[in-house]
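tool_call: predict_structure(chain=1)
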Amino acid sequence: MSISYLTAAQIGSLSSTVVSGWSTTELASLNSTQLAAVSTTAIAALDSTQLGALTSTEVKGLTTSQIPVLSTSFVFNSPQLAVLSAGQLNSLTSTQVQDFDSTHIGLLLTSQIDGFTSTTLNNFTTTQIQELASSQLTGLTASQVSGFSATLFAEFDDTQIDEFSSSQLGALSTTNLNSLDSTAVQGLSSTQLKGLTTSQVS
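tool_result:
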């Protein structure tokens, strides 16, 4: 019998041994509701090949409890990454976030990044921070920008700093602002400087 005919309740009762034995074709036959019903123990048993076969529709159904337990050898492919919600992305572990290469970083939509929590943003490596494009940075809220650790914020290059608005820079802590090198500070525009608070410039 095809597993596509199983109800969500039936799928949720299956053991990791059964689920790990599914072929990529069988996995691809599930709808998002069925996939979401797979227990965290069972979905953790899927390997990277099986997970890579999931359709974009199925990936949309992954729960925030399932995503953190996915195989550590698996990284979402481009079509899968494109459909993940900010909530799903925020459920990634630091290891999963840091497994994103430059292609993955470049594919992140502004709408996805806009929904990142400070925790998710601070899971980025220094290399990943430098790979964020100007279009990705301009969508960050003041709260998100202020949430960066001083160590990570210092990794933004001068070109990236130039893209921050006055309101984004005005939300920085003095520690983060002081983490900028002299070249970055000297390169701030008059508009950006006007956005700094009195406590930031004192």
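agent: Residues 1 and 24 are 16 Å apart (CA to CA). Proceeding to next step.
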